[in-house]
Design goal:
Elements: E1 3-5, H1 12-15, H2 27-30, H3 42-45, E2 51-54, H4 66-73, E3 78-81, H5 86-95, E4 99-101, H6 103-108, E5 115-118, E6 123-126, E7 129-132, H7 138-146, H8 149-162
Parallel strand pairs: 1-2, 2-3, 3-4
Antiparallel strand pairs: 5-6, 6-7
Length: 164
């Protein structure tokens, strides 16, 4: 697992350049362009299970879903930030991308520190310090586990139809 650390106000154009909005729609088309203007190495080196640590207002900007779709498609385990733009937060839930708000953990992080998450205990370990974050609602975890809101809804409808 690798940690990718960024600052405040990382906007959707930094995550996925707007110039590709109408030419890249599928995850495999989006992935090569993730963070290309902010961190040209990201798309080449990111691996499933990696974590992004960022400052405040992560995901501000437009309502385009490509940044979230791309981050989910490359296997980002979670984004830990001081705060999120609301539209990005909602798009992340829809795609099943895990967002954790924990300003103290972000402040404690230094390059090359180990980071680990414990969702059951609602803690994040940064180096030798452990920080508590608000417990994630079971619905959010279920949406993530299902692969996004659409798959979660489909599974619930199938279950409901099968119960009749």
């Amino acid at each position: 697992m690798r940690i990718w650390a960024y600052g405040d106000d990382i906007n959707t154009d930094m995550l996925f350049p707007g110039k590709y909005t109408y030419t890249c729609a599928k995850p495999d088309e989006i992935k090569p362009h993730l963070l290309e203007d902010l961190d040209p190495e990201f798309a080449k080196a990111v691996q499933p299970g990696d974590i992004i640590i960022a400052g405040k207002n992560f995901g501000c900007g437009s309502s385009r879903e490509q940044p979230v779709v791309g981050l989910k498609a490359v296997g980002i385990e979670a984004i830990v930030a001081r705060s999120y733009a609301r539209i990005f937060y909602r798009a992340a839930i829809n795609q099943g991308l895990l967002l954790i708000e924990c300003p103290d953990a972000v402040a404690a992080y230094q390059p090359d520190m180990a980071v680990s998450l414990d969702l059951k205990q609602s803690t994040i370990k940064v180096g030798d310090q452990t920080f508590k974050f608000p417990t994630l609602p079971p619905e959010i975890l279920a949406i993530r586990d299902a692969g996004g809101l659409l798959e979660y809804t489909r599974a619930r409808l199938r279950a409901k139809a099968g119960a009749k």
